[in-house]
Amino acid sequence: MKTQLGLGLAAIGRPEYINIKKENINQSETAFRENAMRVLDNAYSSGIRMFDTAPSYGKGESFLIDWQTSRQHQDVFLSTKWGYTYMANWELGYAGKHEIKEHSSAKLLEQWQTSKQLLPQLKLYQVHSATLDSGIFENKTVHRQLLEIKKETGLKIGITTSGAQQSEIIEKALEIEVDNEAVFDSFQVTYNVFEQSTFAILKQLLDMQKTVIVKEAMANGRVFPNDVFSHYLDMYGVLKTLSKKYKVGVDAVAIRFIIDSLQPDFVLSGALTTQQLQDNLKALSFHLNPTEIQQLKTMACKSNAYWSERSELHWQ
Questions:
Q1: Contact, 195 vs 304, CB < 8 A?
Q2: Block means of pLDDT (10 residues each) for the chain, length 316 residues?
Q3: Which domains does the chain have, with CATH numbers?
Q4: Model confidence, pTM
């Protein structure tokens, strides 16, 4: 399957997100809803058919439900998640945890009541940020509930992962079965020019005909030159050189690296505006050669360092 560009609604659905590259836009809920509809329409008209959201993305899931209800597109691949609750309630500078994780049977049933409004175009339902200690892999009740949802609706069941243990989490997920039937069909994983530790297991998943979705292609904005991250100067130099060569932005180079090195099913754009989205789409206009791919592969940082640094980024 040829890699497709999808649109993730993490930044579109809430006024603050973990991203060092800010945009000066109106942060009211009304303005965000108008922007979401505009970006979603622009994405569809530009050929994007995969849209990914979650209840914890502020109003992201609500925006997607409203958009699809009003547009009635028949050819879209919609995906959402369960397991996180948005807590900031559109409060700028919120001091508490913006998202609270709960991988319980009750939370699954609660959030499914809203998420199922995306049917029949909802094609993928995911455990949001599965971890080895969140209880998801030991909860046989949840496994059975997920399998029941799969059988009732025909959609795929997946997990999303974050952190330095992504590969171990995927391996654990592959072991989960109910009545000798695998529960998880899809894996949404962080993989980018800085964090490449999941490459081997993602290739294995693709060989198994599992769906692979790559998120955080921009490393929460760290692919863009920034004085705070001077240890990435060499990488910034390479990205800039490739950007000039192919006459695209650094964002397009970062996305193209993922496509050419891994060939996943989907790479998610985290664009907040139509301009960012159009810049991201330029990744489909060129190919990196094998030497350039290898050069970027050799510049990956250690996974623990990447995730430690990410944990220090602020919501803004």
A1: no
A2: 93 74 73 94 98 93 97 98 80 67 94 97 97 94 97 97 95 96 97 97 97 95 87 93 98 98 97 96 98 96 90 65
A3: 4-311 (3.20.20.100)
A4: 0.95
